[in-house]
Design goal:
Blueprint (H helix, E strand, L loop, with lengths): L5 H4 L7 H7 L2 H13 L8 H15 L3 E5 L11 E3 L1 E3 L5 E3 L3 H5 E5 L15 E6 L6 E5 L2 E12 L8 H21 L7 E15 H5 L2 H6 L24 H16 L4 E6 L5 E6 L2 E2 H19 L4 E4 L13 E9 L16 H16 L1 H6 L4 H4 L14 E2 L2 H11 L11 E2 L9 E2 L11 E3 L4 E3 L8 H23 L5 H16 L11 H9 L8 H4 L6 H9 L5 H54 L5 H29 L7 H26 L12 H5 L4
Parallel strand pairs: 1-8, 15-18
Antiparallel strand pairs: 1-2, 3-4, 5-6, 6-8, 7-8, 9-11, 9-12, 9-13, 9-14, 10-11, 14-19, 16-17, 18-19
Helix pairs in contact: 6-15, 9-10, 11-15, 11-16, 14-16, 20-21, 20-22, 21-22
Length: about 700
């Protein structure tokens, strides 16, 4: 592969369209493409032929096993490997992979999160082939495995994964957007949502990572004094990439390209040791699958360079956390982006209606949008001055906002989207600006021809985020289509509808600094929700409005919503409790002994100096300072231990409230004492790598 040009290896491990066209009979290929492109029911009669071609292709590549690759509700992917080998009565073996094995597999559904939809003894679950996401070969030291993207459900058909609801939401938005386009005599085979997920991550030295129990068990540092230098000089952002990191990025690109993941952009992010990878956008379903593969590949390849990849939203305090910007748009099968303004956006009726639908959706379902990004991990990041605020708002930019304001005021629009930038240097070329600036303080920003939803955390499964986004926008597009379908004066009714929607929902639009105190006051005046943490927005998923929304468009059943509410609540509780117990273990077993050891050494020095009739004030003052802090540390440990002992996990949302209001508060108090002691104890006695060690390593 190294001798081939990078464009030649792209997709070499994917059963993509080119491979299908080459290996499948024409009628089988056309039938499969109809299912993929137009959403027609999969013809099971062709399954054996497709399975045979898949098997032969995979074995020729060197694969010995296949797996139904799925996304259970635990934030990760799952796979059970079966070999193609089938023994014969003669003592030999043949290879086999049937259509039945391609379409369906049975797995244990009881051991995955189900939110009460499955009892422990109800073990049977099914995975079903998703033909819209291409099969691929996953490569590691064990060789190649054929991975077949699948949906995962219980014996009773309840969705136990993130893929099935996403596919349902994509079908819903396809149906109702086509209705809207038909009103304007614009036909398309299919409307798809597209996504480009920008993935941020940290890389730190593997040996240092192994010495930090908190990083290993919880994904973030529970202790750590503020380093002398952080990101004050803004010298890491887009800076020169260190050689070992560049080597990692090169192998990462290569492996992702082989798997058909269009990795495009890579660079240093704002915080030291933080980086970003951005792929080219593609169909939402495929993009979400690919993002899971990106995270898996990052974690696996980092070890090749004695690095550890951290995907936690806030592995280090005092410096930027990591997000995953979700760039969302709506496109026809023929390639038309419905959020593309064009040269005269004020005359682009479809653009204005789709944009209005998103504005209405984000305002009406802001709580759900916030909930889609909620987790204990992301709570550590959101609302800080390096991440979007927790108050949902939309940035449109001056030009687009002016168009809507003029519509509201019945003023004529003459907006020209194209403006030039003058550099004042003759040798520099004339360049055109985009339709909007970029507002990094906005949770949901229109960035020219897409919406950049910046709230998701770096470890978030994008399928859930896009299921929420798709469904919310579907409801608004359905509303618009219903209003216009029987119109007698379409031009007038469109104008009135855009005007009324903008007037009702313009409160969600904010083009200023989302980090400012003024915005907090203004948002409160506008009566926008401020869900500051996961616990406060959990009820949004299963209230009656949400049940009505998701059941209307067949995205979630009421039982599936209730189950996901329980899973999110339980995951939050478990994360906080693992962190609390990890803190206690580290404080009792590592930090406390280190401090006592140094006090013993200092005490001996003070005593020795006194015996020699020498000045011991410096040593005595330091000893006294450490001893006082040690007492506070000991008290903090006792207080946290009490809160953990008194925790009752069986109280539902009340248990999560207890974790947020009691356990987390005591954890933060304990950390203050330990972080102060870190600044007093000699580095050779401190029992773990410091922030400076980890984020400024020079390997």
């Amino acid at each position: 592969m190294e001798n081939k040009r990078f464009n030649e290896i792209y997709g070499c491990n994917v059963f993509n369209d080119a491979v299908m066209r080459d290996r499948l009979p024409k009628d089988v290929y056309k039938s499969l493409r109809k299912s993929i492109d137009e959403g027609e029911l999969l013809n099971n009669d062709i399954a054996d032929t497709v399975a045979g071609a898949l098997k032969n292709w995979a074995i020729e590549k060197g694969a010995t096993h296949f797996t139904h690759w799925f996304q259970p509700l635990n934030g990760f992917t799952a796979e059970k490997h079966d070999s193609f080998l089938v023994p014969t009565s003669e003592g030999t073996a043949i290879t086999n992979f049937s259509g039945k094995m391609l379409i369906k597999s049975e797995t244990d559904a009881s051991s995955f999160p189900s939110g009460g939809m499955r009892a422990v003894f109800e073990a049977r679950g099914y995975t079903a082939w998703d033909c819209t996401s291409p099969a691929f070969l996953k490569q590691n030291k064990a060789g190649l495995t054929l991975c077949i993207p699948t949906a995962f459900c219980s014996y009773n058909g309840n969705a136990l994964d993130e893929k099935m609801p996403l596919l349902r939401s994509m079908e819903a938005i396809n149906k109702h957007t086509k209705r809207l386009l038909n009103i304007f005599k614009e036909n398309t085979k299919k409307v798809i949502t597209t996504v480009g997920g920008e993935q941020e991550y940290f890389l730190i030295d593997k040996e240092l990572y192994d010495k930090r129990m908190d990083l290993s068990l919880t994904g973030r540092t529970l202790f750590g004094a503020k380093p002398p230098k952080g990101q004050e000089f803004k010298d890491h952002y887009y800076g020169i990439i260190r050689e070992n990191v560049a080597q990692f990025m090169k192998e990462l690109d290569t492996e992702l390209w082989k798997a058909g993941v269009p990795a495009k952009t890579k660079h240093n992010e704002a915080a030291p040791s933080q980086h970003e990878l951005a792929p080219v956008y593609t169909t939402s379903n495929i993009a979400c699958d690919q993002n899971q593969l990106i995270m898996e590949t990052m974690k696996r390849l980092a070890n090749h360079y004695n690095l550890e990849c951290l995907l936690h939203e806030k592995p280090f305090s005092y410096i930027n956390g990591s997000g995953k910007h979700n760039n969302w748009s709506l496109e026809t099968a023929e390639g038309r982006n419905l959020l593309e303004p064009g040269k005269t956006p004020h005359e682009n009726i479809i653009f204005l209606l789709i944009l209005s639908a998103v504005i209405r959706a984000v305002d009406k379902y802001a709580g759900l949008m916030r909930l889609s990004t909620a987790s204990a991990e992301n709570d550590c990041r959101l609302g800080g001055y390096e991440a979007p605020p927790v108050i949902i708002s939309i940035f449109l930019g001056e030009q687009i906002t002016e168009i809507f304001e003029n519509i509201l005021l019945d003023k004529s629009n003459t907006s020209n989207i194209k403006k030039t930038v003058e550099f004042g240097v003759p040798s520099l070329p004339e360049i055109y600006t985009d339709s909007t600036d970029r507002n990094r303080t906005s949770p949901c920003a229109f960035t020219g021809n897409k919406f950049e939803f910046r709230m998701p955390g770096s470890s978030t499964q994008l399928a859930f985020v896009n299921t929420i986004f798709n469904t919310a926008v579907t409801e608004s597009i359905d509303y618009i289509a219903t209003q216009l379908e029987n119109s007698k004066d379409l031009s007038k009714d469109v104008s009135n509808l855009i005007k009324s929607m903008y007037k009702e929902h313009k409160k969600i639009i904010f083009n200023g600094n989302g980090y400012s105190d003024e915005w907090l006051k203004e948002a409160k005046k506008r009566k926008l929700n401020n869900f500051s943490d996961t616990v406060s927005c959990i009820p949004e998923l299963s209230n009656q409005d949400s049940i009505d929304l998701f059941t209307k468009y067949n995205v979630y059943t009421a039982d599936e919503l209730k189950a996901r509410t329980e899973i999110i609540t339980e995951k939050y509780e478990k994360q906080i409790n693992v962190e609390a117990n990890t803190m206690l273990y580290m404080a009792n077993r590592l930090i406390l002994p280190a401090c006592i050891n140094y006090i013993t050494i200092l005490s001996s020095q003070v005593k020795r100096l006194k015996e020699l009739v020498l000045d011991n004030n410096a040593q005595y003052n330091l000893l006294n300072k450490i001893n006082n802090s040690l007492q506070e540390l000991s008290n903090g440990i006792c207080e946290l231990e009490k809160t953990v002992v008194n925790f009752n996990k069986d109280n539902g949302l009340s248990s999560a409230v207890y974790c947020r209001d009691i356990i987390l508060v005591k954890m933060n108090e304990l950390r203050k004492h330990t972080d102060y002691l870190e600044t007093l104890i000699p580095s050779d006695l401190w029992p773990m790598p410091t922030y400076t060690d980890m984020i400024f390593y020079k390997n």
